[in-house]
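Q: what sequence does this backbone want?
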């Protein structure tokens, strides 16, 4: 039965498949499956949040390091969880893009699932220590992060298949990551951390939008209704320009009252313009893949530059 006529497209989630994956993945395959190009989504918010704490006079290096472990572990856990959940549903069978361990048959679903839980568990453990040394109620935020990571594409009704993936990315890899990093070190939240969180969340969403724009044909066929599928190709391209270019520009200008040094972030906008290039040129399929790496680079460049501005102003 084809995916188009299958009355229970999520039935594969009820039982572990037995034929998919032969366990032949090498260490290089596992590293590629962890999708290092998405790691700026973890590094950028912690860097900005820590620099915002420094500007307010509250930087604590070991808490910043713990926050980095949390963010990095969670993003790898999310990537493996998506690999597992999409793979057992058949969503990745005709996918264009980076290697998927389950979809390619290189790794057994159970192994990828264990890897996802392992990294989510590592992030959760670091989060417990971070919460215990700052605000214990933040444990609830950590639990929400783990649940959001798994149910993005996992469970019987994943919210990533309902067009809510970008909302989750903005909230957890933008607002929560930046503001939470500052809060654990400073004990309070400043307005400029919130503005920076909006910019980082926007950049993160742009990465996700690029990925989902590329996958509109295969996602539509598989019944994965992402935001890009809902909006259609033309409006998705417009959304990418808004997230990659306009919001970071306005956020950078909004940070001027905190410090003029925040204008260093403007130096990253040419990279963002380049990241939007293939989208602007109406590229499709594999031709959009370079935009993913460049979008992550733009986010990291903006975060490094603005963070440098915050630190200089704090001296």
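A:
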């Amino acid at each position: 039965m084809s995916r188009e006529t299958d009355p229970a497209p999520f039935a594969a989630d009820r039982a572990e498949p037995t034929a998919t994956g032969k366990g032949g993945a090498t260490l290089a395959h596992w590293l590629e499956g962890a999708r290092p190009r998405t790691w700026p989504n973890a590094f950028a918010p912690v860097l900005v949040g820590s620099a915002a704490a420094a500007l307010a006079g509250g930087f604590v290096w070991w808490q910043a390091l713990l926050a980095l472990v949390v963010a990095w572990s969670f993003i790898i856990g999310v990537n493996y969880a998506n690999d597992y959940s999409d793979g057992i549903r058949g969503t990745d069978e005709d996918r264009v893009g980076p290697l998927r361990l389950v979809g390619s048959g290189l790794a057994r679903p159970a192994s990828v699932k264990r890897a996802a839980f392992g990294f989510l568990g590592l992030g959760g453990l670091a989060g417990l220590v971070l919460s215990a040394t700052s605000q214990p109620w933040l444990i609830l935020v950590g639990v929400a992060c783990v649940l959001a990571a798994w149910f993005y594409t996992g469970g019987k009704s994943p919210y990533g298949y309902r067009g809510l993936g970008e909302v989750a990315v903005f909230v957890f890899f933008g607002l929560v990551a930046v503001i939470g990093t500052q809060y654990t070190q400073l004990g309070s939240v400043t307005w400029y951390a919130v503005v920076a969180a909006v910019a980082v969340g926007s950049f993160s969403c742009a990465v996700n939008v690029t990925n989902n724009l590329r996958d509109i044909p295969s996602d539509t066929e598989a019944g994965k209704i992402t935001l890009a599928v809902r909006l259609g190709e033309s409006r998705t391209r417009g959304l990418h320009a808004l997230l990659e270019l306009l919001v970071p520009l306005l956020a950078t200008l909004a940070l001027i009252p905190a410090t003029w040094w925040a204008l260093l972030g403007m130096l990253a906008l040419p990279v963002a313009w380049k990241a939007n290039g293939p989208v602007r040129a109406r590229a499709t399929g594999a031709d959009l893949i370079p935009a993913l790496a460049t979008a992550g680079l733009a986010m990291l460049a903006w975060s490094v530059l603005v963070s440098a501005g915050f630190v200089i102003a704090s001296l």
